[in-house]
Each structure stands twice: as C-alpha cells, then as structure tokens.
Write a structure and sequence with these properties.
The complex is a heterodimer of chains A (about 270) and B (about 300). Chain A is mostly helical and about 270 residues long. Chain A has helices spanning about 5-25, 25-30, 60-95, 100-115, 115-125, 130-160, 160-170, 175-185, 185-210, 220-230, 235-265. Chain B is built from 13 helices and no strands. The relative contact order of chain B is 0.14. In chain B, helix 7 (about 130-140) crosses helix 9, helix 8 (about 145-160) crosses helix 11 and helix 10 (about 210-215) packs across helix 11 (about 220-260). Chains A and B meet through helix 4, helix 5, helix 9 and helix 11 of A and helix 2, helix 7, helix 8, helix 11 and helix 12 of B.
Chain lengths: ~270, ~300
C-alpha cells in the first residue's frame, strides 16, 4: 500500500465532515434549524450564531448542517445513476462493436455539442423542477462521460489473455462481461466518479439556487443561498456561509478524486 | 490529405451535425409528459382554447408531418412564437443573444488574462511557493459554484465598495462593459482555473521537450526560447481548450445572468421555464447547441492554421 498523500487526507477529512453532518444533523446543529427567534433577526455572526441568523432568526449554522443530507444525496444519486447507465452501455458497445459502436460514436458527438447545463435545464424544464427530475436529467446527459471511459477500457481488456481463456473455458458472454471484464475495467470509472461528485455538488446547488433543483422547504445549500440573496446587502452571511461550505465540500471531493487517481495510478 | 480537402470535409461535417441536433431537440420537446396544451392553459383550458393552441403549436398533426414542418420552419428561420411574451422567438433571441455573446467573450478574455501569465509564473517556478499558491487559489476556483462567486463579488464590489452596479445592463457600449464586468469575472473564475491547470502542464511538458534543449544548446537566450517555442505550442492547446469549453461557459452564463439580472439568453431560459414558455426553451436549446457546434468548427480550423499536423 502506497502512502496517502497530504491532499488526499485533507480531502477525506472534508468529506468525512460532510458525511457526519448528513448522518446526525440533530446532534451537531446547535439550534432547531426551523426554530424562529424574533429576538435575533438577521443577526450577524457571533459566538452564539457562528453563521449568523436569517430573516426569521433561524440559526444559519444549524440550517447549513441540516442541508448537508440533501447535498450528499445529490453527490451520490447524480453520479451513481449516470455511472450505472454509462457503464452498462460502455460495456456492451465495447464488447460488441460494429454498428452499436457507430451509433454510440454519433450519440456521444451529439450530446457533447449541447452545453451540459443548458441540456440539463431544458430537460428539467420539460419534466418540471424538483430533485427527482433533476436526477433524471443529469442521468440522461451525464452517462456519456462514463460510457466513454468504460468503452475505452473494455477495448483494452477485450484483447487480454484472461478473456481468451474464459472464452475457451466456454463461459457465457454475460459471465465474461460482468465477472471478468467489469472488475478489471472499472477502476478509471470509479476514480472519475469521485471527481464527478465535486462537479454535481456544484451543479445541484446551482440548480437549487435557480429554483430548478431541490424545492423549499427541502434544505439544500443552493436553496439556502437563494433565500439569502434578497438580503445580501444587509445580511450577506445568510448566503455567504452556506456557499463557503459548498466550496469546502467541492474541494473535499475534488482533492479526494485527484488523490485517488494518483494513488491508483489512473491517468486522466 | 491537403489543407483544402481537409477544410471542405470538415465544413461538410457540420450538415449532419446540424440535422442531428435538430432531431434531438425535436425528440426532447416531444417528451413532455401528459397533454402539454391542457397543462399550459390550466383553468383557462376551454375545449376551444385547447384546440386553438394545439393547432398553433402544430400538435394536431402526425409526428412525421410535425417533424417535416419543424425542419422547414427552422430553414425558413422561424422558431415559433413565445407563449408568454407573444412575440417571435427569433426576435427575442436576436435581442438577447448579443448580451450573452458579449458576456462570454469578456469572460474568455478575463480568464485568459488571468490564467496565461499565472500559468507561466507557476510553470517556471514549478513546486516552489509561487506555484503552490497559484495552484491552491485555482483549486478553490474549481470548487466554487459560479453563482457563489457572483454573490461574493456582488457583496464586496457592488454592495460593499459600490464600485460596480448590482446588476442590469447599460445603454452605451461603455456602460455595458461596466455592467458586465463583475458577471464576466464570476463566469471567468472557474474557466481560468481549467486553463491555468492545462497550460501549466503543457508549458512544463514543452520545457522538457528535446527541441527546447536543442534551442538552448544552440545558445539562444532563454527568454527567446520561451516565447518562440514554448508559448506558441502552449497556445495551441489553449485555443482548443477555449473551443471545447464554449458550452460550459454558455451554461455558466445561464447562472451568472440570473445572479446579476443580465438580460441575456440564459436569464431568458430560466424565466421561460417558470412561465412554461416551451417554444422559447426549445428554440434556445437548439440555438445554443448550434452555436457550440460552430465553435467546435472554428476551433478545428484555427487549430489547423496554428498546427499544420492537424489536417494530416
């Protein structure tokens, strides 16, 4: 086992903090995130309220902590669904080649000409705003990156001797694909998945901010910031504190992704 | 393949791409769940009104006929009428697109202005403190959502210091530049991080290349080597990067325009979602994808001009 690099440890610590907030927000949050306090409206950050309070006197630190759960959910669902779809498609197209390969190539070219965010927004517009529809939209657009990685890797693995051996032994195609090729080809995909989590956290909070992702009263960092933007000249902390947390969470995922790539020797 | 043939075949490729984009947008628009027209009209959905709007949107015909009409309309430059604003979508887009174009262009200039010099500083000091500092700042840039950078800039430079307006768009060219400056910086931030990273890596690779050693061994001054050999090669990579990222910049413009209330196509798109103005959303998706594929085309041509190996 190689030594863990400094940035990787930093990334894992940041991610650990997000996960802990998501698992037990009630233990960590100093106040009830929905508790009004009319004695402390729009109060600036102090020792009692490190992130200040909002227009209803709700403690922003507690609101930010309780929002970690949805943002972590976004990081997982908005990468796992596209990953699963992309891996399946990449696996089959890489294995069978021919016509499937040609159609796949055209499809990939087509999807990349659409600006990612614009296409996701267009699909959300059609399906209607909300978290579930956001996941569907991100899956429809996001599988391409995973399929490309998987496709390239399957082409390499396909000619490996162990595949020939499995064929000679008369194993069925599904068995060769899923039991033999998949475990050998999945590594770059998994490393990309972690880095992609950083991107979808930013994407999910952006959509939440625009009102297209998580819907209030669901607590999500982008939604909190959208709430706070109306007060940005009197009480900038309402928007700025949760935003800082998004940056730290994004940093956590991208440091972990870069660190894993280095550790597992995956070239990008 | 010589340059001429390469150019012609590359130009011809745009035709199938355009057709596929059109087809994809058509399919996308048909994914609308349920009866769109009834959903659009809501309580005002009398039978007569539903029938009229269905006919207006051309939804009363068979799918192949709809598809033919759709392509014919696009070729004639007709993208339908906005349901919310009651004007031609083409007029609306023609009105708003220059704003987004200017914002994106300013963002590219600002991003390159920040990234190119800093990438040189970082690469020439590789793994010493200036390099580490620059890389950490840009790492933060990569982890910051564009709307958050925008709000930070608004809080500090517009609400706090009052150097810049809070949002909107001016009348004269100078006013427009002034109004778009903060949004462009916000949009440029994460893109400049991407450029910096790549440029730093490619400068390092070029610095270690044999022809640079050779040029140095010939006794050419280090600075001259840097500019004649290193810069040229590194810039080819950067041009490609700009081309490939036009799409993500346009996507970022959607968010930026919403934060700063800039009246461009991005804000139009978000507004149209809330007013359920499907013809506008459909047209914008189409136009933006066509623009990106044109950007890819221009990138390829510029790249061929800078690096003749591309056409071979």
């Amino acid at each position: 086992m190689r030594r863990l690099s400094g940035p990787l440890i930093g990334g894992i610590v940041l991610l650990g903090a997000v996960v802990i907030c998501a698992i037990m927000p009630n233990v960590l949050a100093p106040y009830d995130p929905l508790g009004f306090d009319f004695g402390a409206l729009l109060a600036p950050p102090t020792a009692a309220h490190p992130f200040g309070t909002d227009q209803f006197g709700r403690d922003m630190l507690s609101r930010t902590i309780s929002a970690a759960r949805i943002d972590l959910q976004i990081a997982l669902f908005a990468t796992l669904f596209p990953c699963a779809l992309g891996v399946l498609i990449g696996l089959f197209v890489g294995w069978y080649g021919g016509l499937a390969d040609m159609i796949f190539g055209r499809l990939v070219d087509l999807v990349v000409t659409f600006p990612f965010l614009v296409l996701v927004i267009a699909i959300v517009a059609i399906l209607g705003p909300g978290l579930v529809n956001m996941y569907i939209a991100i899956t429809i657009v996001g599988w391409v990156a995973y399929a490309r990685l998987m496709h390239a890797e399957v082409l390499v693995q396909k000619s490996g001797e162990y595949v020939a051996a499995a064929r000679v032994l008369g194993y069925s195609t599904p068995r060769i694909l899923f039991r033999h090729i998949l475990p050998n080809a999945i590594r770059p995909v998994l490393v990309y998945l972690v880095s992609d989590m950083a991107l979808v956290i930013l994407l999910g909070s952006s959509l939440g901010y625009l009102g297209l992702g998580a819907q209030p009263p669901e607590a999500e960092w982008g939604v909190l910031i959208a709430d706070g933007k109306n007060f940005f000249d009197q009480a900038p902390w309402i928007a700025l504190c949760p935003g800082g947390v998004i940056v730290l969470a994004g940093l956590g995922f991208s440091l972990t992704g870069d660190g894993l790539a280095e550790l597992m020797d995956v070239k990008r | 393949m010589n340059r001429g043939t390469w150019l012609v075949s590359r130009l011809l490729q745009i035709i199938p791409t355009f057709i596929l984009i059109g087809l994809a947008v058509f399919v996308l628009a048909r994914l609308l769940p349920g009866n769109v027209v009834e959903a659009l009209l809501g309580d005002r959905g009398t039978d007569e009104a539903v029938a009229r709007l269905t006919a207006q949107l051309g939804l009363d015909r068979s799918i192949p006929v709809q598809l033919l009409q759709y392509f014919r309309a696009i070729l004639e430059g007709d993208l339908g009428d906005s349901l919310a604003l009651r004007i031609k979508v083409t007029t609306l887009i023609a009105d708003r697109l220059p704003v987004t174009g200017m914002l994106t262009l300013m963002a590219i200039i600002i991003a390159l202005g920040m990234a190119v010099p800093l990438a040189f500083v970082a690469a020439l000091n590789a793994n010493r403190w200036p390099d580490l500092l620059i890389r950490w700042v840009f790492q933060l840039g990569l982890s910051s959502p564009v709307f958050y950078v925008g709000l930070l800039l608004l809080t500090v430079f517009a609400a706090g210091l009052r150097w810049f307006p809070v949002g909107g768009y001016g009348d004269t060219f100078g006013e427009k530049l002034y109004h778009l400056f903060l949004p462009a910086v916000a949009l440029a931030f994460s893109f400049s991080a991407v450029v910096m990273r790549n440029l730093r890596a490619s400068i390092l690779a070029v610095l270690n290349a044999e022809y640079v050693d050779f040029a140095r061994a010939k006794g050419i001054a280090a600075r001259l080597v840097l500019f004649r050999h290193v810069l040229r090669n590194a810039l080819i990579a950067t041009v490609t990067l700009v081309g490939l990222h036009i799409g993500s910049l346009l996507g970022g413009a959607v968010v930026t325009e919403s934060v700063f209330a800039v009246p461009g196509v991005g804000r139009l798109m978000v507004d149209s979602i809330f007013s359920r103005d499907y013809p506008v959303i459909q047209a914008l998706t189409l136009v933006l994808a066509l623009l990106v594929s044109l950007a890819f085309l221009v990138t390829d041509i510029v790249q061929m001009w800078l690096d003749p190996r591309v056409s071979r």
